[in-house]
Each structure stands twice: as structure tokens, then as C-alpha cells.
Sequence to fold (118 residues):
Amino acid sequence: MHPKRELDALLQVARIGHDLRPDLVHNFSWKPVLYGGSVASWLGIPAVNLLNGRGYVQLSDDLRARAARRFVLWAVGRVSRNPRAYTVFQNPDDYSLFVGARLVGDFNGHVCIPLGTA
Fold:
């Protein structure tokens, strides 16, 4: 997690999204949801965002991860509230985390698919 590299990656995703103008963006995992979901929201492109468990920022005790944790949760929550986006949670704990923290509305364009039930 280096801020300059992360910003460069976000700008690269934005350039690709702007150039390609896809009909739909499908983001899988936290960082792609954050970057691809943000770009989709900015460009008015529908998105499906799949959150598949908690990643490094959510689980690590590393100082950088802890420092980024609140921002990442807030930013992914913002992306998930995009009216042109659907968020899929693969486990009830993540879904409850987002609903409980009021990062998303209860089943307002969000689906929770518990593991082993697809």
C-alpha cells in the first residue's frame, strides 16, 4: 500500500474505463470494487461489485492497514450506494458489517449469498 502507486492505479483504471466505455463493470474483491466501482460511478456505468470476504486492510494489524481501514470501508460503502450498482456479499458477516455501520441500506440493491448456497 503506497499512496502514489494506488493513485496511479486508480487513474489507470479511470483511463481504461473512459476509453472503453463498457456497458457493465464487474468488480471482484475489495480493491477492484473500490477502484472500478468509483470509476463506474464517475462515468455513469452500471456495476456489479462482489465483496468476497475481508482482505488485508480489514484483517491486518499492520499500521498502514489500520490507518486505511476506516477510509476503505467508507469508500467501498460510497461505491456500494451508487444507484447504478449492485453489491454482492459472499458472507453474512460482511453484509452485517456494512448494514450495521450504515454504509449500505438493508437490501437496497445489495445481495448476500452465503457460502455454499449458490
About this structure: The chain has one domain: 22-112. Helices lie at 3-20, 30-43, 56-59, 63-80, 92-100. Residues 22-112 form one domain.
